[in-house]
Amino acid sequence: MSRPNEDDDCYLPIDGIEFFRQLNGRQFNTMNHTYLLPSDNEEIKSTYLGWLALCWYSPSPAVRSIAPHHTVYLPRTDLSLDLGTGKGDWAVQLSEEIPWVFVTSVDIVPIQQREVPERCRFEIWDINTPDMPYKDAYFDLIHARAIHTGIRDYPRFLHQIACILRPGGLVILIEPDLVQYIWCLPPTYSLEVN
Q: Which of 85, 98, 120, 174 could form a disulfide with 105 if both were Cys (CB 3.0 to 4.6 A apart)?
């Protein structure tokens, strides 16, 4: 399989599998048509800027998001799952900063970093699959951020997470507020509700 862009440092080619399709000059995934955001360099850079903004807000967003709640309660090796990992920044940072954490990261396209810590691995599959390929009560921590647009059945997704999370484990779901504000319309517009 050829690389979509030779300048892209984070693309992982996997022979025999076509992960991308072109539409209106942009690159999209082929595995999940519910997820409508592109999977090209422009989108990777945009997502990375969001990650940098989060880093600016918190010197270590990966660790700060879990530290107050989770690291104190770890009786064994921490097995973490990052769903919708994208480029994998959160997973890599977590595995670098907490030495006992093993992170499994999942996304629908192979755009992850090539050089990652030994305790971090990437898997390519659609998280809308009927059953996640993990044993019940397997993970200590499950993280997902801004994946709502790609989830077909969010209640089923939450049920699957509950199944693979160990008792006492931690789930971190971070989704944007998608409320559309009517007050920002010019005063000449009105909203009629029947």
A: 85
φ and ψ of 139, to 5 deg: -100, 145
- Which amino acid does the sequence have at 20? F
123-179 pLDDT, tens digit per residue, is: 988 899 888 999 999 998 899 988 888 888 999 999 999 999 998 888 888 877 666
* Contact status, residue 97 vs residue 60, Cβ threshold 8 Å: yes
By CB neighbour count within 10 A (0-12 exposed, 13-18 middle, 19+ buried), where does 173 fall? middle
Closest CA relative to residue 149, chosen from 38, 26, 37, 28: 37
DSSP state of 77: P
The CA distance from 13 to 29, in Å, is 14
Residue 6 CB neighbour total at 10 angstroms: 7
According to CATH, the topology of domain 60-174 is Rossmann fold (3.40.50)
Sheet with 78-83, side-by-side order of all strands: 120-124, 101-107, 78-83, 139-145, 165-174
In the chain, what are the domain boundaries? 60-174
Contact 116, 102 (CB under 8 A): no
Strand partners, 22: 27
